[in-house]
Design goal:
Length: 214
């Protein structure tokens, strides 16, 4: 004896509908428009907790960003009007200011990720995405800044001044420019790794501190 459920399934599949002027059964319609199975990206608790440490380790590869912020904010106090003159140059002013802004935004996002990850909250990946976008913007601005410093020839014009050739705790623009060129490549690697974390669900433990796959 047929079950009631079997009867209903056969009845429903034999019902006809009109789609774009064509009559077809529900069974035929379902074959043409199969339901897509909803996939859910799963990240284990350990991965979420490890995200902040891993991201901080990657950001250590671009420590020059903090040095650039310090140069921009304390240049006048250290070297006076000459620093102001350099920072206000046409090819340097806007990208330098943007590098400072994007760096501070990225630092705030890293702190936010640290806070959310402690609660094992999957929303942390939304902030990882925001961090990736800020770092991509930062990479663009840093490239413009390096190009601006190079095209202005300012490092040659003031080559004997500490604001250009300073070392140690008072880094000059020449060294900052060299390190920024390297940081551009590092930032591109970091952005790719952040994208992998979001899109492919790659466990953070699969990377070393330099952002390279183990």
């Amino acid at each position: 004896m047929r079950s009631v459920q079997s009867y209903h399934r056969e009845f429903e599949s034999s019902q006809t509908i009109i789609v774009n002027g064509v009559e077809m059964t529900m069974k035929e319609y379902c074959k043409l428009h199969p339901r897509k199975r909803k996939t859910t990206k799963v990240a284990n608790i350990r991965t979420i907790k490890m995200l902040p440490m891993h991201i901080k380790d990657m950001m250590k590869q671009v420590k020059v960003l903090k040095s650039l912020v310090a140069y921009h904010e304390h240049g006048y106090r250290q070297w006076g009007r000459i620093a102001t003159e350099i920072l206000n140059m046409r090819d340097i002013k806007t990208p330098f200011a943007q590098v400072v802004i994007k760096t501070k935004q990225a630092e705030r996002l890293v702190k936010k990720i640290d806070t959310i990850a402690k609660s094992n909250d999957y929303d942390v990946f939304q902030y990882v995405n925001q961090l990736q976008m800020r770092l991509e913007e930062l990479t663009t601005q840093l490239t413009w800044l390096v190009n601006g410093i190079t095209s202005s020839h300012i490092t040659k014009y003031y080559k004997d001044h500490e604001c250009i050739n300073g070392e140690g705790k008072r880094l000059g623009l020449r060294i900052l420019c060299i390190r920024s060129q390297k940081a551009i490549g590092e930032l591109e690697v970091i952005c790719q790794k952040l994208w992998d974390m979001q899109e492919n669900g790659v466990d953070a433990l699969e990377y070393d501190v330099n952002g390279k796959r183990r």
